[in-house]
Specification:
The protein has 3 domains: about 210 residues, NADH-ubiquinone oxidoreductase 51kDa subunit (Rossmann fold, 3-Layer(aba) Sandwich); about 80 residues, Ubiquitin-like (UB roll) (Roll), CATH 3.10.20; about 130 residues, NADH-ubiquinone oxidoreductase 51kDa subunit, iron-sulphur binding domain (de novo design (two linked rop proteins), Up-down Bundle), CATH 1.20.1440. The chain is about 40% helix and about 15% strand. The chain contains 18 helices and 13 strands. The strands form 4 sheets. A 5-stranded mixed β-sheet has the order 6-5-11-8-9. It has a 4-stranded parallel β-sheet with strand order 3-2-1-4, with helices on both faces. Helix 14 packs antiparallel against helix 15 and helix 15 packs antiparallel against helix 16. The radius of gyration is 23 Å and the shape is globular. The N and C termini lie far apart (about 45 Å). The protein binds flavin mononucleotide (FMN) and iron/sulfur cluster (SF4). The site of iron/sulfur cluster (SF4) has 14 residues, from helix 15 and helix 17. The site of iron/sulfur cluster has 14 residues, from helix 15 and helix 17.
Length: about 450
């Protein structure tokens, strides 16, 4: 329905994540072929030729990152799969960890062979339970089958893997913070240079890729770099796992070929806004990407160039749909509370700026805002841009600037009338259109919320 599939190529059942079933689908045959017939640099060449962009949020070309690793330099190299998946609205790596853990492991083995890695890591977010258990069980199965450890499949290649569980910090998904966390220190991002591919984990050359980026490596080797490039668009080869949630009729994880019409995806494949309502806007790629209004969605195709031309991005593939009737002031309050809570506090603009922004939006929602608060939020967002160690300072600013630019009237109304024009509503209530419009909850009607306090408890003063 949403184009070619590279990852979601099999029906999910209660046992489809097991090694026996993965092997029955041809799993680990690519690893065997690579180890017996390809040299490490040939694998890297195919990854570079594929043009695959990182799926963790920054869309950095994986081939360029891998190309920095010098083979036979006498140093240990490390590979880390980033399974932190902390960006709100994003839960697509979770699909791989739960349903295709062996695809990730096979791809990591191929990648480790290409990069001369003896020890690989998966950094997995602390809150993940089933994904962790599935991955840990898959690692055990793989060791028992001789797919990790010494002389894998009777070749000269040896590789071990460690799963490292995080402790629930958003910033530990940032690559340099992830490394310091694995080293047992506080998960603080650090300045570059040196790049992590030059001096990373334990001061050694390290490649960090997102779970989905790495999981594509088996397909890249199978199809060849040029074959992979034929899928998707010229500038965005391949597919993207998109997790879609919020006020949407059919939430879930979908594999979307780059170049697919965005409106078709939202309205046809995912059924449009919840309960037959209207889409107000979407967050296309995790809350750090700018919102797109319903009108802006229309001409966009789901790929980096088209989303960027529309003023947003693919980000981490976490799409959130926001229905008409949602209060954007309250929505921004939820986002700023998150950023403030997650700032690691190293950089003054982020540490102080997040606190200021959070306090300003709280003040507006409490009905005590001043008109200048809107411009103050804009000024702080702009001051953060490019002045912090990691991308989080910028991200909170993008989210704020995007929402204010498109929904400034809602902020002005809130400040002037000391209450939300939309009842401070974050939930969509399904039921009769009359019930939904009045905001009343029909008996037995379902509702879907962004989280935060219940609607009737918020929304400024009556
Ligand atoms: C605050 C912050 C949080 C991040 N969280 C994640 C994450 O949970 N998962 C992820 O893959 N990348 C995350 N990233 C991006 C990583 O720093 C890095 O770019 C990515 O893991 C590289 O993989 P890729 O090139 O395959 O995308 C985050 C970045 C920042 C600034
Ligand atoms: S931008 Fe924020 S989260 Fe990132 S290093 Fe600085 S203080 Fe920490």
């Amino acid at each position: 329905m949403t184009g070619t599939k590279l990852i979601m190529t099999f029906p999910v059942t209660a046992t489809s994540h097991l090694l026996s079933e993965y092997r029955a689908r041809g799993g680990y045959a690519t690893l065997e072929r690579v180890l017996r017939t390809m040299r490490p640099e040939e694998v890297t060449k195919e990854v570079a030729a594929s043009g695959i962009l990182g799926h963790g949020g920054a869309a950095f070309p994986a081939g360029r990152k891998w190309g920095v690793i010098k083979l036979n330099d006498g140093q240990p190299h490390f590979l880390c799969a980033n399974a932190d998946e902390g960006e709100p609205g994003t839960f697509k790596d979770r699909w791989i960890l739960e349903n295709a853990p062996h695809l990730l492991l096979e791809s990591m083995l191929i990648s480790s062979y290409a990069l001369q890695v003896r020890n690989a890591f998966v950094y997995i977010r602390g809150e993940f339970d089933l994904p962790y258990r599935r991955l840990a069980a898959a690692v055990e199965e793989a060791y028992a089958a001789g797919l990790f450890g010494e002389r894998i499949l009777g070749t000269d290649f040896s590789c071990d893997i460690v799963i490292y569980r995080g402790a629930g910090s958003y910033v530990c998904g940032e690559a340099s913070a992830l490394i310091t966390s694995i080293e047992g220190k506080k998960g603080y991002p650090r300045n570059r240079p040196p790049r992590l591919t030059v001096r990373g984990l334990y001061q050694q050359p390290t490649v960090i890729n997102n779970v989905e980026t790495l999981s594509n490596v088996a397909a890249i080797v199978n199809l060849g770099g040029e074959g992979f490039r034929k899928i998707g668009t010229a500038k965005s080869p391949g597919t993207q796992l998109v997790s879609i949630s919020g006020h949407i009729e059919r939430p879930g994880v979908y594999e979307v070929e780059y170049g697919y019409p965005l409106a078709k995806f939202i309205y046809e494949d995912c059924g449009g806004a919840l309960g037959g309502g209207k889409v107000k806007c979407i967050v296309p790629g995790g809350i750090s990407t700018k919102v797109l209004t319903a009108a802006e969605i229309e001409p966009v195709t789901y790929d980096h160039a088209s989303l960027s031309a529309a003023g947003s991005g693919v980000g981490s593939g976490g799409m959130v749909v926001i229905a008409e009737g949602t209060c954007m002031v309250r929505l921004l309050q939820v986002l700023l509370r998150f950023y403030h809570h997650e700032s690691c506090g190293q950089c003054t603009p982020c540490r102080e700026g997040m606190g200021w922004m959070h306090r300003i939006i709280d003040r507006i929602v409490a009905g005590e805002g001043k008109m200048d608060d809107i411009d103050q939020l804009i000024r702080i967002s702009k001051a953060n841009d490019g002045t912090t160690i990691c991308g989080m300072g910028d991200a909170a600013g993008y989210a704020t600037l995007g929402i204010i630019a498109k929904y400034r009237d809602e902020f002005e109304y809130f400040i002037e009338h000391k209450r939300s024009r939309l009842g401070g509503r974050l939930e969509v209530v399904t039921g009769s259109p009359t019930d939904a419009a009045s905001g009343a909850r029909p008996p037995g009607g379902a509702s879907h919320s962004w989280g935060g306090p219940a609607n009737d408890l918020v929304g400024g003063r009556p």
